[in-house]
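Per reviewer request, we include the raw input and output of the structure prediction for the construct analysed in the revised manuscript.
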Amino acid sequence: MSNQNYDEALFKIGAVKPSDWKKKPAIFSDGKLSIAGHPVMEDWEDSYMQELAQIATSNGGVILELGFGLGLSANYIQQQPIDKHIIIEANEEVFAKLEEFAKNATYEVEPRLGLWEEMLPSIPDESIEGILFDTYSPNFENEEQFECEFPFFEHAYRILKKGGVFTYYSSEVSDFSPQHLQLLQTAGFSNIEKKICAVNTPDDCLYWKSKTMIAPIVKK
């Protein structure tokens, strides 16, 4: 696991089948989102999500966001000059929040309900200018599933236009791990940069303990 600061208590939470994740209750409370007992997102991530949104929208055009959560990054994406905002969300109750968000958005939002693995085949090759990936893996059978962005890399390369930019919640404190970097390169990416972001992580956060996290800047 790339970040050694994950709280071991998180691994004691029961795994949830991806197919069941859609209908699990979503609890929004005190700037936090939890689903089936899993801490999915907290508002301390706001500044980091702003950075990711700025990276993903740096080319304008059509932006694909995977995971709506508290809507932090979605709000920041809507503050940039874009053509269209596609958002994939797997949980039905969070998706209802996304639909409300779409009604009042500045730029066109296309909400899509489902797991990203189900939805990506409908995204044409080389059709997206920017991608922000921040989904949550509810099935902790092994540590590597924290790196839920890794299986997405090859899909990101397929759907990005030439010169398109890809970023994501990285789970890395200050640099890419060798495995992380190798998987990006295997997917086809060679233009790989990063920004180290300061984050105000609260002491009681279960899924992140460090005060920094890298924002990947990955271009096709």
